[in-house]
Design brief:
The structure is a single chain. By secondary structure, this protein is mainly alpha-helical. The chain folds into two domains: 63 residues, no CATH class; 59 residues, no CATH class. It has ten helices and no strands. Helix 1 packs parallel to helix 3 and helix 8 runs antiparallel to helix 9. The longest helix is centred in the C-terminal third of the chain and has 15 residues.
Length: 141
Amino acid sequence: MNLLNERQQKYLRAGNYKTAPGELRRLSHSQEVYLRSRVAENPNTPLGTLFELSADESFEVRVALTYNHNLPLMLQSALANDSNPDVRYAMAENFNLPCEILALLAEDENPYVVQRAKLSMAMASCALKVQDTKHQEILAA
C-alpha cells in the first residue's frame, strides 16, 4: 500500500537529485506552480530546463531558481535583472553570488533589494573584492 498520493510523489521526484533529467524536464512543464518551482530548485535539473524555467510566467518559479546552487552565471545575471522585485530580492539574499552581481543589485531601483544586496555583500566581504577588481582594472589601463 502506497501512503503517498500521486501529487506528493511528483513533488518528491521533482526535488530528488536522483530523478532522471527527462523526468525533471517533463515535470517542469506541469500546470502546477509548486512542481515547476521544485524542479527549479533541484541542482540536477538539466541546463536547458533551467533556461526554460527562467522565463516562466510565475515569479514563484523564478524565485525558486535562485535557490539552485548549480545556476549558471548567465542565469544568475538574468535573474538579477528580472522585472519582478521579489525575484531580484531573492537573488540579493544569496551572499554566495559573485560580487559583481551583488554590486549590480546594490544599485537596484527597489530600496529593499538594495538594502538586502548590501547586507549580502558585507556578509561575503564583497566591498573589498569589488574595490580590488576596480583597482586592478585601473592598474591594467
